[in-house]
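From the shared-data thread, chain only:
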Amino acid sequence: MTISHTDSVAIFEIQVKGSLAPAWSDWFAGFDLSSDENGNTIMVGPVIDQAELHGVLERIRDLGLQLLSVRQVTNH
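Structure, as tokens:
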């Protein structure tokens, strides 16, 4: 993903139930994937705008994953 200096980028943390392999990172727009102590997946990555965030959430839905939380971590 290429981001210009004029774009406002927010970092989001999304948690889904179950474990996803890190190989899914490319499919989720470069989000970093890791597992928490409960075996759930934590996804952290940059989001330029609401449309991009909705795209990531649609991919989660399309995989049939249960969404546990979505939170904005930072806003640059």
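The helical segments are 50-62.
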